[in-house]
Amino acid sequence: MDRKEFVDNKIENNIEIKDNKIDDELRVGFDSEKKENTEKKENSEKKENTENKKNKISGIAYNIVRVIAFTVAGIAFGYASYELMDSYLDYTAAQEKYSAVDEMFNQIQSTEQTADTADTAQTASSAEYQGTITKWVWDYDAMLKYNDESKGYIKLDGTRIQYPIVQHSDNDYYLVKGSDKVANGGGAIFMDSRCGGLDARMSVVYGHNMMDGSMFHDLMKFSKEDFCKKNQTFDVYVGHRHYIYHVFSSFRTKADNEDIYKFGFKDDDEFAKWIKKTYDKSNFKYDSKMPGVSDKILICSTCVDNNGNRMVVCMYRGEEVVD
User: Fold this and answer.
1) Rounded to whole angstroms, what are the CA distances from 183 to 16, 93, 100, 177, 310?
2) Which of 69, 75, 255, 319 has a Cα at 20 to 30 A from 58?
3) Rounded to whole angstroms, how far apart are CA atoms 147 and 191?
4) CA dist 263 to 83, 201, 206, 245, 266, Å?
């Protein structure tokens, strides 16, 4: 082999080595890229599987929460429906009860009317016409037979305030019992157990502020000037007697305000100061006078809300009515 041929072979071998080296590098590169793509694919699949699992878990959790929410809502709706139905039955029972009490005092009375008629052929003659009317007549004895704790009756014309006044040895009893002493959510109109009766110098009478407009709900209307102008007197029956009571003050206060709900006065001076304070708090200037220490005062009180706020209407005893 001559020198030229040797050089050519060496060059050719070097080229082949280089080509093989390039091929190896390319193969390694392709393998690395393939491996990288495979890892990416595997990672993508793992991520997708993880997300699918999360979505599946989220879906299950969502369905569980939805079922729980629907169940709770169903229970709440059922309870609310029960409460509404219970309240409706209470309202209905109370309305029927007090309508029956009111009818107990309805008396049918006969009326006679005499008319003169003239006839051209005869002398004048008299003709009598008879009819009947229904009149409400208070009967304290009948009320005592209905409830031996009855003290009287209170009426405000044009409103639903037309109820017996009762009194128990505590102030909880008639909150949940009607004037017949039977359990009822509407309760009764009752006098504070600390009062010495309707003939005391100051008495407080309570009643619920019912959503159906019954019991002492209409006391809330004394916050409106127009209503105050038109409703300045109550009919109050004390035992066998009937009196007109004149409203002199109406306002809102707190249930625990002992300056208003005051039971017992040490002397006339203290009573006079209490009267002045109560008179000055009124949200409306009534036509009546400011009462004096010799007057019999009655406070009607009802709840405004569940935060201890109360609406009170204060009145004093006026003229006695002979029925």
Assistant:
1) 112, 10, 17, 4, 24
2) 75
3) 14
4) 37, 10, 15, 20, 10
Running DSSP on this structure, what letter comes out for residue 225? H
What are the phi and psi torsion angles at 172 (to 5°)?
-95, -30
Q: What is the pLDDT of residues 50-109, one digit of tens each?
A: 777 667 666 676 677 676 766 655 564 554 444 444 445 566 777 788 888 888 898 887
Q: What is the pTM of this model?
A: 0.69
Radius of gyration of the chain (CA): 45
β partners of residue 203:
298
pLDDT 10s digits, 184-225: 989 999 999 999 999 999 999 999 999 999 999 999 999 999
DSSP class per residue in 25-84? HHHHHHHHHHHHHHHHHHHHHHHHHHHHHHHHHHHHHHHHHHHHHHHHHHHHHHHHHHHH
Whose CA is closest to 210, among 175, 191, 186, 177?
Answer: 186
Instruction: Compute how many other C-beta atoms are within 10 angstroms of the C-beta atom of residue 245.
Output: 25
Please state whether beta strands 297-303 and 202-206 pair in parallel, antiparallel, or not at all (unpaired).
parallel
Q: d(Cα 42, Cα 40) in Å, to the nearest integer?
A: 5
Cβ–Cβ < 8 Å for 196, 297: no
- Tens digits of residue pLDDT in 110-127: 766 555 544 544 444 445
